[in-house]
Amino acid sequence: MSDNDSLQQIAHLRxxxxxxxxxxxxxxxxxxxxxxxxxAQACEAKLADPTAMVVATVDESGQPYQRIVLLKxxxxxxxxxxxxxxxxxxxxxxxxxxxxxxxxxxxxxxxVMVQGTAERLSTLEVMKYFHSRPRDSQxxxxxxxQSSRISARGILESKFLELKQKFQQGDIPLxxxxxxxxxxxxxxxxxxxxxxxxxxxxxxxxxxxxxxIDRLAP
Length: 218
Ligand SMILES: Cc1cc2nc3c(=O)[nH]c(=O)nc-3n(C[C@H](O)[C@H](O)[C@H](O)COP(=O)(O)O)c2cc1C
Known about the structure:
Pfam family, one: PNPOx_N
Domain Pyridoxamine 5'-phosphate oxidase N-terminal: 40-165
GO molecular function, one term: pyridoxamine phosphate oxidase activity
Radius of gyration: 21 Å
Domain Pyridoxine 5'-phosphate oxidase dimerisation C-terminal: 178-218
Shape: globular
Subunit structure: Homodimer.
Bound molecules: flavin mononucleotide
């Protein structure tokens, strides 16, 4: 098959979105309540990694980067994820805390987008979560200098074994380079696929303690 043929085939991949619409009556006053309902439905639908979200940050030149991380907690203060504080994303956020999250629930004909600002979590909050993780994941956090260049996988594996030995007993200390962020919600958009590409989109924008809600054209 030539490159041109395979391109033609991709161009014809399409499906109708028929899982039902999103109407004004379905909306909640606060976006988090609707988010909670959709997240519960994503879990019930047994999507792989329903809490996986694409996180976008920008570097100093304005170049956007994206990667998946797992949502670990949320409440009216924002959405929380954990990561390495020496990672590329952490460097971006030090320089520019503006951030965007995307939940790709397209198996349900849905997506949710968030724009906001990332704030570092307190050590206490990070420590509580860190110690709730399986021991091997805690050791994994110690092993990886996330986003740095390494010459071979073997380096990670031997360091893992070395640290497993070292931390055989007692609590594994929280690495100083491991932490998390809370993303405040300034805007949240809910997208539900509709027939004939007439999708439903609603944008919540924070206005003090309440929310302005607008329908957007698909
Ligand atoms: C399903 C999935 C879940 C992930 N969860 C996390 C996570 O919770 N935290 C994290 O730091 N990286 C997570 N990663 C790895 C990130 O996508 C990324 O490779 C890493 O954070 C380094 O990104 P950076 O170099 O842009 O900082 C996950 C990857 C996948 C595919």
